[in-house]
Every structure is written in structure tokens, then in C-alpha cells.
Design a protein that fits this description.
This protein is α+β, with helices and mostly antiparallel strands. It has 2 domains: about 120 residues, Beta-Lactamase (2-Layer Sandwich); about 110 residues, Arc Repressor Mutant, subunit A, CATH 1.10.10.60. It has a 5-stranded antiparallel β-sheet with strand order 2-1-5-4-3. A hairpin with a 4-residue loop joins β1 and β2.
Amino acid sequence: MTPIELQTGLFSQLAEPFTGEALFDCLTDLVFFIKNIRGEYVVVNQTLVDRCGLREKRELIGRRADEVFPPPLGGNYRAQDEKVLRNGDVILNQLELHFYPSGGRGWCLTNKLPLRNRDGGVAGLVGISKDIQAANERSQDYSRMARVIQHIQTHYDEPLRVKELAVRAGLSEYQFEQRIRKFFQLTPGQLIQKTRMEFAVRRLRETDQPVAAIALDCGYSDQSAFTRQFRQTIGLSPSEYRRTFRKTSG
């Protein structure tokens, strides 16, 4: 039998459609959701409910991102959904800093895929956001890499090339990338990006330094490139972030 025949044979016997909801409820470090063509939540796991500061799933079902998350974040999350729903775009392992209505925030890798109907059109989307866990600094392998990690954390304002970082660690590029993935669940490029963005959000919240100066201090020679990267990672432009979270902090 073909894989499709095997799947059809199994799923046709189920009492209700399989969504994986019960399985994803067991994963507290992962947000899971399914949305319809209007961008409304149809299936969510308990982790998303908790992070939104809600008690029950029914408080999310039928609502869109812009009806759950405060502006301007909610509008930007909805716009991301609409790209998947309208164009069938796929989002894979996108590094993002998420802000939840409950007040929590955290780094994650987000994946969103369109769900197709029988005619090949987009009927909805399915997505997960996996938390990025802190590296285990007690491991022997990490101690060997500590100097390189420290170099990234203190020289993020300079050009950082993976080949040169690998040489600094005494590893091949492949070995270096595997170590970074093991410790951070990120590629070396994503780790550098995360380090730069963490510095940027602190400066935007805590200082009046111009965005152009922050861009330079983060290793970007072009403010527009910095702004594009910041918006993709944070969901807001640097100026929007500063206005929103300065206000929140006040």
C-alpha cells in the first residue's frame, strides 16, 4: 500500500479528525495552533492558553491574533498569518522574540505551514513556536566553546564570520555548527542575530540613543537592514518597539 492509502485507511476509522491537540498539550515548551482561512484559532494547546493569561481554550477559539495580542504586535502577527493564508507562504525556523498578553516573553523558533483543501487551495494554517532553551554551561563540550561564545557576546558589533569563529574554536565549520545547534538549538547565524537583537532591545528600552547609532553598535552598517531584521525578529520596527515598551514600562 502507498503512504496515502495507509493514512487514509487509518484516519477514515477515527471517531473525530486528528489534530494532535492532546499530544501538544503535553509539551510545555512549545506553542501549537491551527487557524482557519480567516486567521481564527480553531485548535490550540494549553501552553498558548497559559501564556495568554487565560484559563480555558474556548477563550481563544474563534479569535484572531489581533484580538488576543495588544497593538501593534497583534496586527503584525495577523499580517504574518495573512501571508501564509493568502499566498501559501511557508515560514520555517524563523527566530522570533515573542511577547505574550500575560506579560511573559521569550525567544523561539517559529514554523507556519498552509493547510490545503482537496482542490489545492489554502484552507488554513498550522503552526508551532518552540522555546529556545538555555545552553547547559556545565557540560564539558560547552566549556571548550565558552571563549567563542564570549567572543560573540562581546564583539557582536563587529563582522562575525562562521569560518573564523570555527577556527577560534579549533573546529571545522561543520563541527562548529553542530556544537552550536546542540547547545542553543540555533544555527551560528541565528545565535549572532539573537545576541545583536538582545542588545538592541535593551538599548531601545533603556536609552534615548538614536536608532541609527544602535544599528551601528549592533554591527549593522545600514540602518534599513537593521530595521528589516529587527522587524522580522521582534515583530515591530525599532521605533515602534521603543514607543510600545517605554509606555508599558512607564
